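Private note to self, pasted from the team thread so I don't lose it. Backbone tokens:
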């Protein structure tokens, strides 16, 4: 059984509700068990023209599914919750990314693990810090805490409900 970290994000509609629904739907899939989840964080849009802030969270999951099958389930749930895929970054009801699948390194056309932008995104690193600050990125050989400390110009990330 693999330990996997998934990132959830929403900036359209009931942001927290979509993340909760996605987590619940994933946990109902045979071969997937949600171990724990981070708090919700309100985050500045990253590399987008949208001004609508996101709510993000990370979940630690145990799964017997292969990385490809897990991706299929994540995409099925995104579609079920109204996600429309576009060529560019646009507002979305839900986005589910596989950040890590154990210590595996996968570089396929439709799946890159560890997530190729994780080390640049405070909105993924901050919730990961809560769950696994000492987890070592298998490509960069740095802990989540080190990757967070290395961010040069991080987007703003607030514990949900604390932004003034």
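Design output:
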């Amino acid at each position: 059984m693999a330990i996997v970290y998934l990132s959830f994000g929403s900036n359209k509609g009931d942001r927290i509700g979509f993340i909760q629904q996605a987590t619940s739907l994933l946990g109902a899939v045979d071969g997937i068990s949600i171990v724990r989840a981070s708090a919700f964080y309100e985050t500045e849009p990253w590399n987008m023209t949208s001004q609508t802030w996101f709510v993000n969270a990370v979940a630690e999951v145990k799964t017997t599914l292969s990385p490809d099958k897990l991706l299929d389930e994540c995409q099925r749930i995104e579609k079920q919750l109204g996600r429309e895929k576009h060529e560019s970054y646009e507002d979305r009801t839900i986005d589910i990314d596989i950040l890590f699948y154990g210590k595996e390194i996968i570089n396929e056309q439709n799946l890159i693990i560890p997530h190729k932008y994780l080390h640049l995104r405070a909105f993924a690193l901050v919730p990961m810090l809560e769950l696994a600050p000492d987890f070592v990125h298998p490509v960069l050989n740095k802990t989540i805490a080190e990757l967070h400390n290395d961010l040069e110009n991080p987007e703003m990330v607030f514990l949900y409900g604390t932004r003034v």
